[in-house]
Amino acid sequence: MNRNYWQPGYETMPREELRELQLARLRDTVARVYAKVPIYRERMDKAGVRPEDIRTLDDIRRLPFTVKQDLRDTYPYGMFACDMTDVVRLHASSGTTGKQIVVGYTKRDLEVWDNLIARQLVAAGVGSDDFIHVAFGYGLFTGGFGLHGGAQLVGATVIPVSTGNTARQLTIMQDFGSTAICATPSYALYLAEEAEKAGIADKLKLRVGIFGAEPWTEEMRRQIEARLHIKAFDIYGLTEVMGPGVSYECSDQKGMHVSEDHFIIEIIDPDTGEPVPDGTPGEIVFTSLTKKAFPVIRYRTRDIGTVNREPCPCGRTFARMSKPKGRTDDMLIIRGVNVFPSQIETVLINLGYPPNYQIIVDRVNSLDTFEVKVELTDDNFDDSVAALARKERTITEAMRSLLGIGPKITLVNPRSLTRSEGKAVRVIDRRKLHD
Ligand code: DLL
User: What residue's CA is closest to ligand 1, atom 21?
Assistant: First the structure.
């Protein structure tokens, strides 16, 4: 058996068969949510669609969308589709605004979840010989426990470190011989920085990293790979849909395979809700096909990406989604120009700066101000005032040519911006305070 598949029967299933499986599972899910979840039944009644109207996969478009607000409005258990006695685990997403949302899993849901995580670990070449250092947060966040279950299932030795206490993480990595690390990319980079400072970056046994939970660029991937001496893989997921485990990279690394036997992916125009052609960017929408406790129908993720259904050299038949470029709600509109933090990251890394930055947007006399704080490295930190000013101008101009708008650049001391142990906070938008 090819070591890089966990469940070859599903991962390489001919697409025609896969579509049949999806349709059967979709019909089952729609019938269940119609019977058990009032908000789905009311929405479907209003749209004039009944479960038996779902006869082909295209009929999914007749179903109403679900959005995060629906989860908030039904907080905590209003969208659960099974008896609470069958729910064996809860997770939650804190979110930066508003009430948190709660999701749940039955025993069977957890088994599926473990298998989906196992798929992505195995696709990254991780196996039973590995020592997997799980530095995603354990707790209500899905990252820690999600990776944990899958890592155990493949028979690896799991090191459930969770986040925090970076010095201790490095000691554990060295002493326990961690070979694979799972973390947010920003935390991985922080670990790399601290490992370099302690002079142990090239003494670690790490060989592979599995990263996700926040947007990161290809440039960031190269940095992490070079500094931790590993190969880095991208994984994607969200609490509402499952947590990690929704899509994963194979060794070809040209997009993330969506586990389509468990989820249907659609890409829509966020303004009209209409589907866009494959390859065209739009909002990613997921429908779960097997979840029992917390199924979701046409959940609008607010992540922006594309889908590619061309065959992949790895043999998997699952469609691939692009790295999400960012969320519709992460996109900044500054003086009428759309700016994604990932674009800032690309420019900085290409110019040789570390990907630690902070974007500060404000409004002064009704005009947007746009500042980016950029960290110097130890190598260039002693430069003269004139040299620093030149550097700031160079960065401003590089950003202006990419974005059409040039931020004020402020160079700050090496390692002076706050590091995050989970998801990095890149943007401070003070305009909200004036609204
Ligand atoms: O971040 C689940 C997760 C944990 C995924 C560990 C991967 C690894 P939430 O906290 O609900 O769940 O955040 C979900 O994070 O809608 C995306 O905007 C973003 N995100 C997750 N993975 C990626 C990725 C977890 N690989 C939100 N690239 C999603 C870009 C990602 N963005």
Answer: 213
Task: List pLDDT tens digits, range 315-358.
Answer: 999 999 999 977 777 788 998 888 989 899 999 999 999 888 99
Q: Are residues 184 and 296 in the same domain?
A: yes
Cα 130 from chain centre:
23
What is the extent of the structural domain holding 273? 1-327
Residue nearest to atom 14 of ligand 1 (CA): 238
Ligand 1 first shell, C-beta below 6 A: 93, 136, 142-143, 212-215, 234-239, 243-244, 301, 303, 323-324, 327
- Average pLDDT score over the chain: 94
The pTM of this model reads 0.92
Banded model confidence at residue 2, pLDDT cuts 50, 70, 90: very low
CA 419 to chain centre: 19
Q: Provide the 10 A C-beta neighbour count for residue 408.
A: 12
- Same domain, yes or no: 359 and 422: yes
327, 346, 369 - which closes a domain: 327
- Mean pLDDT of the 132-142 span: 96
Specify the residue with its C-alpha closest to ligand 1, atom 28: 215
Contact 372, 408 (CB under 8 A): yes
Q: Give the N- to C-terminal CA distance of the chain in Å, as an integer.
A: 59
Which atom from ligand 1 is nearest to the alpha carbon of 94? Answer: 10
